[in-house]
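Let us work through a complete example step by step.
Step 1: write down the sequence.
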Amino acid sequence: MSQSWQFWALLSAAFAALTAVFAKVGVAQVNSDFATLIRTFVILLVLVGIVAATGQWQKPSEIPGRTWLFLALSGLATGASWLAYFRALKLGDAARVAPIDKLSIVMVAIFGVLFLGEKLNLMNWLGVVFIAAGALLLAVF
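Step 2: predict the structure and record it as tokens.
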């Protein structure tokens, strides 16, 4: 089970939930952008430790340019997402902010189809609609 994508996806969801709760408390007495900087610094330290401890370091010169480009774009999108998320948590309830943030699931499904050529069947699309409806119900009502 620990080698399946489902295990790691569930673990990601659990940590994302904790992120919202911890961040809501943590951002209470600090500027949201500075809180994001602190979070990013902690993540950087942890990842350096993991890569060093597991011997996963790769020579940057051996990484293809296209990979650098898309990882850089992903990093920029992540940074923008975190800044917006922490600002939203500063201003709103975590129980309402997180569901709207999770509309990213709906957007990933749509972008995956449009830009990555992925295929979703009728049941998949129904799930996407339910996720969108559930997120909006949690956030709005």
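Step 3: interpret the result. The radius of gyration is 17 Å.
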